[in-house]
Write a structure and sequence with these properties.
Elements lengths: L1 H35 L7 E7 L8 E8 L2 H12 L5 E2 L4 H9 L1 E2 L5 E2 H4 L8 E7 L2 H4 L4 E2 H10 L9 E7 L4 E8 L1
Length: 180
């Protein structure tokens, strides 16, 4: 009888651990939705990698969200009317991050190996510097963030940032979040 209780307790514990670990991904997806200021629940997450963990939550998250039919039209209109999305092409500092910055964790190599950058005029970009350690104000979007990066040196990459690219031809948002 005692062994059955122990086995049952271990099974319940394993199920609880599995359930608790699944909730973190949905929470991280909702946070990305908040950062990008668009309704990602309309899309299908075709890829999602997350290795945040540990005491400080350091890590990286990568996601690909595809939109179909009417939802593609809705997300395109949302992005076009948004204050935090800018038409492509990428400004030089962001292009340099995409081409040269070597990533670890959920994405290995460079972002250019993972994110296909659409041609100029065929998509949008959104960049969020979330690092209040060096910018002193918390969240800085797009050109404000780029100005802050220029003040810190020729190739300064914020410790905590979100970069998203919307490919309007294929109705896909590629998103990368980095936290150190």
């Amino acid at each position: 009888m005692q062994k059955k209780r122990i086995v049952l307790g271990l099974i319940v514990l394993a199920l609880l651990v599995m359930l608790m670990s699944c909730g973190g991904y949905r929470q991280r997806q909702k946070r990305i939705e908040h950062y990008l200021q668009v309704n990602l629940s309309m899309g299908i997450w075709e890829a999602f990698y997350d290795d945040h963990g540990g005491f400080h939550g350091d890590g990286s998250t990568y996601g690909e969200i595809r939109f179909y039919g009417r939802t593609a039209d809705k997300i395109r209109k949302e992005i076009e009317s948004s204050d935090v999305w800018e038409p492509l092409s990428l400004p030089e500092p962001l292009d340099r991050i995409v081409q040269e910055y070597h990533l670890g964790g959920a994405v290995r190599g460079t972002l250019s190996e993972k994110i296909p950058i659409p041609e100029e005029g065929k998509g949008y970009w959104c960049f969020l510097d979330r690092d209040d350690f060096h910018n002193g104000v918390g969240e800085l979007y797009n050109y404000e963030a780029l100005e802050q990066m220029k003040r810190h040196g020729s190739f300064f990459v914020p410790f905590n940032f979100v970069l998203a690219i919307y490919d309007a031809e294929h109705d896909v948002i590629y998103c990368y979040q980095h936290d150190i």
